[in-house]
Amino acid sequence: MNIRSSIPSKFGSGNLGELVLSFDWTQIFQILDQAAKDGRMVAIMDHNGKVIAASRELRQQGFLMSKKFLPWLSNIPKSGVEIVDGSPLHTSRVIIGFDRSHGYENFSGLDWTTIVIQPLDQALQPIHRLAIIFLGFLLATIVIATWISLWVANNIARPIVALTAFTRRFINEKSLPPSPPVSSGEVGELTTTFVQMVEDLDQSRQHLVRASRFAVMGEMAAVMAHEIRTPLGILRSSSQMLKREPNISDEARELIGFIESETDRLNRLVSTMLDGTRPRLPSFQLTNVHTQIHNCILMLAAQTQTKMIQVEESLQSSDPYCECDAEQMTQVFLNLLMNALQVLPEHGKITVTSRSETEKIIIEIADNGPGIAKEERDKIFDSFFHKREGGIGLGLAVVQQIVSAHGGDITVSESRWGGALFRISIPRKLSEQS
Question: Cα separation of 270 and 369, whole Å?
């Protein structure tokens, strides 16, 4: 197809000649065929609505140089993009794009319209793929967010559940259960604080029970001291008077000696009960603890030699001085050492060690005896609890009371030989007592 246009002269009247444009429709068809991919169809219409060029599929259906599109496109604006239902292309729903030629430079154009036709399903395939990808990302985000939420909730709930179980066991068993595991963060701080509060509450409860027992013991001891010491004094004085009689046989003197010794023993038992129920307040003064321990071991030297008990001192504390009542602390060390001597067989072993900690001195008395069962360690300091035949169960109760009055603490555990290990912690200064 040739298109002619006159070329006016800019230097005079008339025309210089004609400009002839020669369209090679074969190349145009190739361009349209290249554009018609992925189900698209492309056509070019002139100003009369006649299809003058089209892609291969439209050419095969006979739309070239025809007006079949004109009725179909009569109600559709010839600009932009439109979606229509039905078409002469046997496609139920298509998307159509229009583009009119606008000319170039001084050339106004040929008033041609380029039409791009594509089935809606094919046109929306990229959007559908994008929607599927978006839904996949959304689903992955929901799964990840749900997993993170469950993980965070589990990390928060697990220590709360453990803390609840710890509290329930403490309420039901009336004893301090093992502490729950401590996590990090605010929940961990809450767990640590709550466990410390429960431990303090349990310790206060134990002190209250112990104090109530001592109160009952005080009343009993006062009555016993009044009712027993008077007849004991009469018995002792009577035996002493009988002993002065000149005509008493040796057998009678021996029996009188039994009366004196047994009344003395009963008097000591009453005195022990009174000491356990109404101990005097400690008189604090700077004291060398190592010297006290050494003196106590010397006091018991005769008993240790009789049973051939080996007593070792390993006093390693760099500063053995602390503010305490020397007489009461001597009573503590003697009581613990005598308990060990009474339960140890011949050729037994006792070690006394000391070491320094921050503003405290630690004394440990250990032996290789039978030890104390784990289930009895919580009761060992209770009044009237004893395992040794002939004991009354007040010695260790008095020891704990003296140590507590000094602001310290005493615990019992197992020594490295399987025997008992008593650990005493005493503050160095009176001002640091709790």
Answer: 29
